[in-house]
Structures are given as C-alpha cells and as structure tokens.
Amino acid sequence: MPYVNIKITKDGVTPAQKAQLVREITETLVRVLDKKPEHTHIVIDEVDVENWGFAGLLTAEWRQRQKENEQVD
C-alpha cells in the first residue's frame, strides 16, 4: 500500500491542482510499480509560508529578495 506525502506552501494552490497531483502521482505508481490505485494514498500537507524556510531564509524573505534581484536586472 503506497503512501505518498506531499508538503507544499499554503499560497494559492487550487483544488484542481491538488486533484491533478493526486491523479498523476497515482498513475505513476500504477505504471511504474504496478500498484493498485485503490490501495494508493496521497496526502497533501499545506504549510504556512511563515513556517517554511530554505537557503537560510523564511519563504517570505526569500521571495522578497528574488523580487528585489529581478528589479535590478
């Protein structure tokens, strides 16, 4: 029984996009690993951007720096 956990930031992902993720990941597990769709579980966890960090920065700060860099270019 495959279990896939997707973690994304909570900022504008639509229900249709989430449904597409579930559908396509399930299709991949069926195709690649010959798993049964009815035994495949996909969980999407949405994390507030203020609780997500990378590259030593919180997401909001990283995005702000990216905008500033784009304006300079």
How would you describe this protein?
The strands form two sheets. This protein has a two-stranded parallel ribbon. It has a two-stranded antiparallel sheet with strand order 3-4. The protein has 73 residues and is of the alpha+beta class. The termini are far apart. It has a single domain, classed as Macrophage Migration Inhibitory Factor (2-Layer Sandwich). Helix content is 45%, strand content 25%. The chain has two helices and four strands.
Q: How would you sum up the major sheet?
A: 2 strands, parallel
Q: What pattern of helices and strands is seen along the backbone?
A: EHEEEH
CATH superfamily: Macrophage Migration Inhibitory Factor
Estimate nothing, just give the exact number of structural domains: 1
Indicate the CATH class: Alpha Beta
β-sheet strand percentage: 15-25%
Parts with pLDDT < 50 across at least 5 consecutive residues:
none
Helix content: 40-55%
Global outline: elongated
- What is the C-alpha radius of gyration, as a whole number of Å? 17 Å
Q: Structural class of the helix and strand makeup?
A: alpha+beta
Termini separation comes to 49 Å
CATH fold category name: Macrophage Migration Inhibitory Factor
Total of helices: 2
Question: How many E strands?
Answer: 4
List keywords for this structure.
25% strand, 4 strands, 2 helices, 73 residues, two-stranded parallel sheet, two-stranded antiparallel ribbon, alpha+beta, Macrophage Migration Inhibitory Factor
In short:
This protein is about 45% helix and about 25% strand.
